[in-house]
Amino acid sequence: MSVNLKLLHTFAQVAQLRSFTRAAEELGRTPSAISMQIAELEDQIGLKLLERTTRSVNPTPDGALLLERVQNSIRSLEDGISEARDAAERRMGRVVFGCAPTLAAGTLAPVLTQFRFRFPKVALQVREVTSNDLLNAVRQREIDFGITPFVQAKSDLVFKRLLREPLVALASRDHFEDLPETLSRDLLSRLPLLVMQGMPVIVLQDERETPPMLTEYLERSGRSLNIACSVRQAATLVDLATSGLGIGLVPKLAVPAQMPEHVRVLSLSEPEVVRDIGIATLKGEVLSKPALALAGMFKSQLSGGLSNLSVSQIIS
Fold it and tell me: What is the distance between the alpha carbons of residues 265 and 170, in angstroms, rounded to a whole number?
């Protein structure tokens, strides 16, 4: 019997996640397309594999047996791919990765020093590029992976979160006196703001996560925003905030370790606004051991850079 391997992979996702909707999100397809693939697989092998109700999806006894076999096969295939990649990496002795500019400062040097000590014979190539250019480089296999802010679900890419960082506000004491240590969204809407163009954030409220753009979130206050300036680079925004042009809204990792004494770093009040940092890879791509080790070093370094955060905000 010839069975489409893609159908088996889809079945495994649905059976493991117990949800057509979640499986569709993971695979970058619609729930109806997932349902059609499961029906096609059941027709091919002549067995009912899933019991479906309005609230849950569970494997039948036959489905549970098939799931175990499929999972074992997938693990075996992944091990084979990993071994092949490791062998190729050893022959090439090279890791190529990209890093978004807001993450490079203060992060690259200690990470690369640690990597060089552990893998002295593996050559490193680094591309410091914007998130969009970084993702295109991943797609074209010009780099093995990228360290980047949150990536919206895309069918050809995988984004694995390494950590979550808060947004903070930078305010010059010389220009903005008597501001509280924590700024509400309502107060922000009445101040001149400095923002990064097209910056996606995550709003945490009532145990829910929503991923608007930063300006979209601010507009929910119901007031007209006073955007003094919007820029592409965090370093530019920090300079403008330092000069007193406005209140700069930046990710915490983008704040330099040494700031002028007249600049205050203020927190944002509920709802909490954060940014996810993670590793972006091509779907189906298996990283070599040196590349995986490098990603782990980034996680450790970035987490250390946020040492004043609560443990729950550092994602294990």
Answer: 5
DSSP 129-152: --HHHHHHHHHTTSSSEEEEE---
Task: Give Cβ neighbours of residue 83 (< 8 Å, ≥ 6 apart).
Answer: none
Contact present, 127 and 99 (Cβ < 8 Å):
yes
AA identity, residue 312: S
Phi, psi of 196 (to 5 degrees): -95, 135
Share of the chain above pLDDT 70, in %: 91
Q: What are residue 203's phi and psi, to 5 degrees?
A: -100, 125
Which residues touch 172 (CB under 8 Å, ≥6 apart)? Answer: 241, 242, 243, 244, 262, 263, 264
Residue with token string 């954060």: 274
Q: What is the pTM of this model?
A: 0.58
List, in order, residues 6 or more apart from 92 with CB less than 8 Å away.
none
Please, what are the domains in the chain? 5-88 (1.10.10.10), 89-161+277-313 (3.40.190.10), 163-275 (3.40.190.290)
